[in-house]
Amino acid sequence: MDDLSALMLQIAYGADEALDDQPIDRLVLRAPRPQQSASLPETPAPRPAARAPEIPAQLRAQTLADQARTLEELRQAMESFDGCALSTTATQLVFADGNPDSGLMLIGEAPGAEEDRMGKPFVGPSGQFLDRMLASIGLDRTNFLITNIVPWRPPGNRNPTDSEILLCRPFLMRHIALVRPQRLVLLGGIAAQSLLGSKSGITRLRGRWATVDVPGLAAPIPALAMLHPAYLLRNPGAKREMWQDLVALRQALEQ
Ligand code: URA
Known about the structure:
The chain has helices spanning 3-12, 57-67, 71-80, 86-89, 113-118, 125-135, 162-179, 189-196, 202-205, 229-234, 239-254; strands spanning 97-98, 104-108, 145-148, 183-187, 209-212, 221-226. It is of the alpha/beta class. The protein has one domain: Uracil-DNA glycosylase-like domain (Uracil-DNA Glycosylase, subunit E, 3-Layer(aba) Sandwich), CATH 3.40.470. A hairpin with an 8-residue loop joins strand 5 (209-212) and strand 6 (221-226). Helix 2 (57-67) packs antiparallel against helix 3. The longest helix has 18 residues, at 162-179. The radius of gyration is 23 Å and the shape is elongated. Mean pLDDT is 89; it is low at 29-34. Uracil binds next to helix 6.
């Protein structure tokens, strides 16, 4: 069995946490033999106390998310969730910013350093750039709600892994279901691929309206994928595409 299949099997068995940095082959390891005393009879080893079986983190995330009836309950449930290792390296949960009643929800990738410090999404350089681009079509944070696929900063600003995205998905889906936006904007490849269920790159996915099915909502939500503002900061030549997508968003909002 290759490494990936072995890992998938462990996840299917509910082993969702690494206990050590290095693997331990328990088929090779043997407990040290107790010293035999010549005179005393061997006493039976005490039985280990029975432990309640651990509920897999994915199931706990789903249960917590399903139980949340309001955005505040969801935020508290996410703060109480200790099943995602990212929450132990992040400073705090980054839940959302903006207006949940606006009908428009923007979803990015994961908090960066500034977001982690402030506890708000998109407040660092790429967030400020995004604000300026949205202002050019007349939108500010009273006109939309903004959040991320993953609510804790990955260490060193690395991309969130597939398993971290999957683990946080029940919270994101519940977040969308509670907000009930009329439209979604997916910022960057990770948000677009994860919510559109596609492996295509963002340059293929951007600029076209698609739909996202959200558990608990009767109708799928129209969603527009766009380039991530951090990508635009690195590739200013792509501003033309971004402008086209902003115009498409503005037109949809005017309908
Ligand atoms: N990039 C993101 O995707 N989200 C943030 O909150 C900040 C930067």
